[in-house]
């Protein structure tokens, strides 16, 4: 199964390698890893997407919690969290194909960041589904270079029963 | 003494050197001994040991042994063991000991010197990234980069090492930190670490479920491990076993957690456990694991382990629960606290039928060996005789191999912290330095290292340490002139092709002892066994007793690697009329 871990850690040297090392030791590839500062300057949030057997991923979550520098571990569920990824891609687009590529970019709300004689570089963000479809659509024209941030995610806060929309 | 001359109150902070801060912090943690080996970056810290006596530095002959001595000290005393080595090779030589402590959950704090912070990462002379190297074998580790972090980190390190599931913590100390100065104030209050809050109290609902399961069970077995000893929960185990009338088996690290002479005891289980322990576990309907982790040497083939049983697992480490096999009733908490709560709910019970069944296992499949009149000394009888002569009060350590398994099978161990062995990592050369640490922790006790000739040869340089400090450790070598356990596997599974296991060339241990200024004795005849052991025990100071034993003796019972426990080999298949396998016993 595929799982998204949201891990809040102390902003100390070596923490990222310790956390990713736990996955490596079990022989699991990390599909993506993204780390960045949070509202608290002493804490960093690492979001890891990994494939593995459910039991092993559960075990890894337990082991992550044991690490001194790990403050919180959440296993995020898709329907209860927001996930985003930023993709930069350079696509082959000769003059005769350029309009098509720009149309696709437009349909996905991607920004164009550079255009040359025969390429278009675009920037797109979205959830897992959107980025996957976009990349698939662009692959037909040939992607010559791509960089992805990996997924970042946050759980939705639960809405209380008392909540009422503002009038 | 320093306490009189400086820092009269806690209220005023005073500027001290890094080395001085370290010394004071260790004093505050109650450290008595530091096992170490010097190096250039440690000069200012080492200097403090010259004139002060609160903490004694024990100069080892190899850093690996410093870590094992710290472990031995911790295992025998229940406190935290401390070792100190220099940067680079001094630090890397600790790694085996640190890993051993990690695998067996032993609280030690390792202090390593490091090159100055300005050159860390530059491949400076005697630099090693010890924090990076030990990241996966420590509970936590620190590289101190700011003076202000020094005292708090030492305090945290001891807290982390001794609380929760205990384990090793390493603090890497750059030279400029040792030389630098910072204000120092005796810390007050509890250590509070946001991401580290071990749960010690079991969940009341789970505890209730445990009590109900015990009440309903017809054939329960208690399976206790090292966690019972770490939590000082032996009395609680005995109370539960007695009240609910439950037979008790233990892991290698659990030896001593329950008195082996108690009629409820089944001995050790697993690969070289007693047949009756493995049979009882195979047949039980409730297995209560306390502070044990279902290691592969215990379970054999996991899918065939305790298949009829509901499993209760009490452990302080949530990651240990459900790791190797599914558990019906998990209880996260400190073994002592949890068992106390369970004991409040458990009513007295008698299980006559179950004990009748277990007694039959014991009668039909006892531990056996054959010693012939005029034949070679059998290692098993050597251990039995040693156990009788040493009495129940001695502390035994072991190395790793055949002798270790025979010790686990045949020694009578009545008290916790009296059997000290390397379990998880299986580190040859552990027992002798561990015995030195244990002897310093418990100077009132007779401390005996049960050794093989292979293991002892890995660490015999520490004879110098025993003589220098007058540490009266007895080394009891079961000498089969070879690496017996590997030889045993070659005997059974490699068609008796004995490759690279012969140690025909070894030292004369009597002369070796003499060379270091200690006493020694060599025996080969069975009739000399008891008098020689008596002489070893009554001779003051360190002693080596070299017992030449039958090199062809194998450890049985034995579960072949990957096999199910019920298919254990009971008797030597090389001899006639093997008694068959466990599965041959009919169900009742």
Give the C-level CATH assignment of the largest domain in chain B: Alpha Beta
Overall 3D geometry of chain B? globular
Gyration radius over CA of chain A: 19 Å
Q: Just give the CATH class of the largest domain in chain A.
A: Alpha Beta
CATH level 4 superfamily of the largest domain in chain A: ACT domain
Mean pLDDT of chain A: 91
Q: Percent of residues of chain A in helical segments?
A: 25-40%
**Backbone structural class of chain B:** alpha/beta
Q: Number of helix segments of chain B? A: 24
**Euclidean distance between termini CA atoms of chain B:** 70 Å
Structural class of chain A: alpha+beta
Mean pLDDT of chain B: 94
The largest pleated sheet of chain B is described as: 6 strands, parallel
Structure commentary:
The complex is a heterodimer of chains A (167) and B (588). Chain A folds into 2 domains: 2-76, Alpha-Beta Plaits; 82-153, 2-Layer Sandwich (Alpha-Beta Plaits). Helix content of chain A is 29%, strand content 41%. Chain A contains 4 helices and 9 strands; from the N terminus they run βαββαββαββαββ. In chain A, the strands form 2 sheets. In chain A, strands 5, 6, 7, 8 and 9 form a 5-stranded antiparallel sheet that branches. Chain A has a 4-stranded antiparallel sheet with strand order 2-3-1-4, covered by helices on one side. The mean pLDDT of chain A is 91. Chain B folds into 3 domains: 2-184, 3-Layer(aba) Sandwich (Rossmann fold); 204-364, 3-Layer(aba) Sandwich (Rossmann fold), CATH 3.40.50; 379-548, Rossmann fold, CATH 3.40.50. Helices cover 37% and strands 16% of the residues of chain B. In chain B, the strands form 4 sheets. A 6-stranded parallel sheet of chain B has the order 3-2-4-5-7-6, sandwiched between helices. A 6-stranded parallel sheet of chain B has the order 11-10-9-12-13-14, with helices on both faces. In chain B, helix 4 runs parallel beside helix 6, helix 10 crosses helix 15 and helix 17 (379-390) packs across helix 18. The termini of chain B are far apart. At the A-B interface, helix 1 and helix 2 of A face loops of B.
